[in-house]
Amino acid sequence: MKREKNSRVTDAAYDEILREWQNGIYRINLYIILITLCIEIVFMFILNAKGTISVPIPQYIPLYILRPTLCNIAAFVLCVWLNKKDAISHSIRAMLPLVLLTVIVSNLIVVHYVFTALYATIIVPIYVSSIYGNTGITKKLFYLLMPVYVFDIVCILLTPNKNLPSEFPYDVLVAFLMIPLSYLLVKNIVEYENKKEQLILTRSVENDKLREEIKVDGLTEIYNHTGLFEYLDDKIDHYKEGQQLMISVLDIDFFKKVNDDFGHEAGNVVLKALAKMMQTVSDEVLGNEEGQKVLPARYGGEEFSLVFSDMDMQEAVSILKKLHERFAKQTYPGINRKITFSAGIAHYEQGMTDQMFFEKADQALYRAKNEGRNRIIIAE
């Protein structure tokens, strides 16, 4: 049978969330660049006023302001430009904001090498990479950070007239060791979260399957009483004035005699035959994907139901008549008699509950049975 799709977060929705997050990281990187620029300018005036500035202002501006800022802006523009290129793969696109953050952090370390506490910031991109939940991205970033950090230290050592603090070698070593340790920690966190997410997803799928199985009749493989009323409730909850919604209740004529005369196995064959015809007739309706227009169900015993939506009464009755004619012509092995059904069909009126709606069609069914069976009655 055709079933309604459960609402899940689609890949497209996930990609949209990821894009929003990446854009946020780009904005944060830009804020860091601008804030760093402002701080450098403010510090220049403060240090100059106190007379503690390390180099003259003509040297301070290119060394601490222009060079790092231009480098950061160039990296920012390049990453944003590459991010917009269709030819860039998904994995590289994911790496770009992390690479940009690495450039900014690297600049801070080289320019302000006297503040050895800044060396530890080299591990920040690794922790940010955990948001992707992808150990491959974290691993690539780890391989990038190791040579970048070595390059930073070389640049510091080659700086002319440098005044390195006494704890410089120890801080360099500690920061260097923090890179692989941070990588291993983030890698384990990501693997744990991925396993947990997979377990949640597996259980969710199993629960979805269980919920669907509960709604399906085991013999006929169409919706049962539970599935029918859940479907009706959903239709009624989303009903808007002017919409078309109908329900038909079917009852196989003299079904008890079929069971008594030919056995319950023969009766099951008849039940399955009617269910299969109902599904076939439903599938033939244009636009009936996922039960949008016609939904068949077995209400209980020899009672069945068809729910019609997005069509008028005339079309619904036409479908019901087609089913009625086909079923009356059906033959069964070992059953030497014609088998028919009676049906009642009702139109939904705003304010009705699912039970009121069903009973309206059920009353029309009783009229059909009282008037001689093997007929369809439209509820008044």
Write down the domain tally: 2
| Low-pLDDT runs | 1-9
In terms of DSSP E residues, the strand content is: 5-15%
How many strands, which pairing sense, and closed or not: the largest β-sheet? 5 strands, mixed
Q: Which term fits the overall shape?
A: elongated
How many angstroms separate the termini? 31 Å
Task: Output mean pLDDT.
Answer: 88
Structural class assignment: alpha+beta
Write up what this structure looks like:
By secondary structure, this protein is an alpha+beta fold. It has two domains: 11-203, no CATH class; 225-378, Alpha-Beta Plaits, CATH 3.30.70. It has eleven helices and five strands. The protein has helices spanning 11-50, 57-83, 90-111, 124-128, 135-157, 168-215, 225-237, 255-262, 264-283, 313-329, 354-370, and strands at 245-252, 294-300, 303-309, 341-347, 376-378. A five-stranded mixed beta sheet has the order 2-3-1-4-5, with helices on both faces. The longest helix is centred in the middle third of the chain and has 48 residues, at 168-215. The radius of gyration is 36 Å and the shape is elongated. Mean pLDDT is 88; it is low at 1-9.
Question: Keywords, please?
Answer:
alpha+beta, five-stranded mixed sheet, 380 residues, Alpha-Beta Plaits, single chain, 2 domains
